[in-house]
Amino acid sequence: MERTDGYIKPAGKRILIVAFSFYPIISPRSFRTTELAKELARQGHEVTVRIPFKGYDYTQYAADHNLVFKDLGRIRFKDLTITGNGALSMIKRLIRRMLGLLFEYPWIELFFIIPKSLRHEKEYDLMISVAVPYPVHWGVAKARSRKHRIADTWVADCGDPYMGDTTDSFRKLFYFKYVEKWFCRKADYLTVPFEGAVSAYYPEFHHKIRIIPQGIRLDDLEIPEYRKSTSYPVFAYAGGFIPGKRDPGALLQFLTECGRDFRFIVYTSQEGLLLPFKKALGEKIEIRSNIPREKLLTVLAGMDFLINFDNNTSTQLPSKLIDYAITGRPVLNITSGSDFSQLLRFMDYDYSERMNLASPQTYNIKVVARAFTDLHDKR
Questions:
Q1: Phi, psi of 223 (to 5 degrees)
Q2: pLDDT tens digits, residue range 124-172?
Q3: What is the pLDDT of residues 72-109, one digit of tens each?
Q4: How far apart are CA 327 and CA 310, in angstroms?
Q5: Residue 2 placed within a domain
């Protein structure tokens, strides 16, 4: 929705952000887009955000953060809802997997919606598209032409890689290679969150890649000082799981057999992978729903230590490590095939093998936002 309340245009750049996820959605890409949009506006730029509203009224949010919101349009393609473990559920899972592999369903709809949404957008200094899902980039590439550039500079911000993704059970089908190369040719820059991700993209586009990490406004955070409150270790994990990759099964099986007293707190929307172990673990495990990021950081800061399930690949890092770094708590990295001897030492409060995480200042949103605007200045 466009501002009609006497809003004064900032003196900075005109910036358009195109994304699928934004506040109040709780996801890494939502955090990325939301924090970036707010900080760019704070730095004096005129920021327009194109997202699917999904029934949310952004009027007050726009006024509070000096943003202009425009709806990408109604999302009609629906993902298949799967419940239970019967034959019908198995068939639905198969259909959902095949539709995703063959057509990138349901996200492929964005390839058609975004060009229509952007047909009247023009004369921006900088356009930032945020993926995942990758059809966000594809839709922007389709909308942008020599006659209708939309913005002087287009930056395609990539969280996880697409063709180079190695965390899924199945690799992307070969013909999507041509789609990825097509949008990479049209983008002025590709941004990835860390150096290791570069190798997940085709070599002919490496000269376009810039490293810009995730960002958070550190000024707004009040991380409480850690104080041990129990006679047993309390540790936590927050985020999603990937069966066979970022899989909690082996850890939970070990915890049922280790004979120790502890509390393991898990914030996730995938409780189904944990429920088979709930009866054996009882009160030793707490399964909680996702909560807003600021509240989560406060909770995590009170843990004895935190758990990270490694992606077991050098090209993708879990975004939760940013939040973990900010809390200052020790982090145990669990890799495929771990014998959990490190976990026992952590439970004895020996953190000598903790992960070496970047300084929280690395993720200062003020620096991150300027890194994006600098890309326009260098064109």
A1: -85, 115
A2: 999 999 998 999 999 999 999 999 999 999 999 998 898 988 777 788 9
A3: 988 888 776 766 667 777 787 788 888 888 998 899 99
A4: 19
A5: no
Verify that 31 and 161 share a domain, yes or no: yes
Closest CA to 176 of 192, 190, 165: 165
The verdict on residue 124 lying in a domain is: yes
Determine the structural domain holding residue 257 and report its residue range.
219-360
Tell me: do 29 and 98 sit in the same domain: yes
Cβ–Cβ contacts within 10 Å for residue 43, how many?
Answer: 17
Burial 342-377 (b: 16+ CB within 10 A, else e): bbeebbeeebeebeebeebeebbbeebbebbbebbe
Structure tokens at 357: 């995480």
* Residues 280 and 258 sit within 8 Å (Cβ to Cβ): no
% pLDDT > 90, the chain:
55
Q: Is 198 helix (H, G, I), strand (E, B) or coil?
A: helix
- In degrees, rounded to 5, the angle at the alpha carbon of residue 126 between the alpha carbons of residues 120 and 130 is 85
Is there a domain that residue 136 lies in? yes
Starting at the edge strand found earlier in the chain, the sheet holding 305-309 runs 285-288, 263-267, 234-238, 305-309, 331-334
Return the SS3 of 335.
Answer: coil
Residue 346 half-sphere exposure toward CB, CA atoms < 13 A: 23
Instruction: Write the pLDDT tens digit of every residue in 248-271.
Output: 888 999 999 999 999 999 999 888
pLDDT digits (tens, 9 = 90+) for 173-212: 899 999 999 999 999 999 998 888 898 999 999 999 999 9
In the beta sheet, which residues pair with residue 267?
238, 288
Looking at the domain assignment, is residue 9 inside a domain? Answer: no
Clarify whether residues 93 and 206 are in a common domain.
yes
Q: Which two tokens stand for residue 339?
A: 């014998």
**Residue 21 buriedness (CB in 10 A; 0-12 / 13-18 / 19+):** buried
Is the whole-model pTM more than 0.85?
no
Same domain, 259 and 341: yes
The domain spanning residue 323 has which CATH number?
A: 3.40.50.2000
**Amino acid type, 63:** A
Residue (of 235, 302, 232, 309) closest to 270 by Cα position:
309
